[in-house]
Amino acid sequence: MRFGDVIGDKSLKERLIKMVEQKRLSHAILFREEPCGGGLALALALGQYVNCRHRSDGDSCGTCPTCNQFQKLIHPDLHFAFPVNSSKDVAESQKGRPISDHFLDSWRELVLTNPYFAEQDLYDAIGIDNKSGNISVHEARRIIERLMLRSFEADYKVMVIWLPEKMNQECSNKLLKLLEEPPPGTLFLLISQAPERLLATIRSRCQLIEIPPMSEEQRQRLPQSLLQEPAEYCELLTGLIEAGISKKLIETFPIWETLADMGREKQKEFCLYSERFIRKLYMTSQGLEQIAGTLPEEEDQIRELASRIKPEFYEKALSAFDRTISAIESNTNSKLTFCDLSNRLLLYL
Length: 349
Known about the structure:
β3 (157-162), α7 (169-180) and β4 form a beta-alpha-beta unit. This protein folds into 2 domains: 3-219, 3-Layer(aba) Sandwich (Rossmann fold); 229-348, Zinc Finger, Delta Prime, domain 3. With 349 residues, it is of the alpha/beta class. α12 (253-260) packs antiparallel against α16. The protein has 16 helices and 5 strands. It starts with 9 loop residues before the first helix and ends with a helix. It is globular, with a radius of gyration of 22 Å. A 5-stranded parallel sheet has the order 2-3-4-1-5, with helices on both faces.
């Protein structure tokens, strides 16, 4: 992928290019992004740029053998690690220690189709059902094995770690020494949506680069599948809001039970969707519809709901969803978590 193909902040791309040209590129970069924020695309463009022998005009050439292999994600010096779990598609002998290598074909297909995918999209693609992915110590051992070898042909061995916050304690500790003193010509590119969940010792060994949120114009260039909000989430959230406004507690029961039966990543997706929806409601209630980012098919519904919601609801509701996300990540009982959320929303409305 070339920088010119990446949807995102132009000044950030120029900053990365300048770092390379002035030989100030850190051996380990930690990109912080919002979900679907373009961090992976940016990392792939940087990895291709540093290894292109014919780069010019602030970008890789896109045509040399190195660029061709990077664009197909098959260059022998380009490596990936991402959250995985056991799957029916993994051989029985490997199910106790799944690593990214077992899912590379599915990973490449997903990234080449849409490098702005969400975490749940990955889990759907690699077939781990409702399980949550993680990066284990087995992955750390495999990373060390690969990076201790000499590069095949590129100037840099590029190690892309997507969602490093999914590394468990043992994995993080195993990689510390390698991150601190990597072999010559090694470039770590970590793309995180929650860097605060990484070990402080991991963060201290990386250069942090914040990826700004996409503008509305940039978002419109994303694949249409990312712009379409899930109808199921909308129905569940508006059901909770309507039940809260009418104070009909019993109507919330089937809704929170449905949410409790979802996989963890889908539960988090629902909460993040709900926060976006509530922000749109708030902006609309304040007469700021032009900057609310409301989709055309949502406008009438959001306008109608916003006219019936109390002003003090918004801040309290956003805090409730933040607490729910923390509870999901802490493996709290799902039924208790979503029963509590629905009760709080009913009280706040």
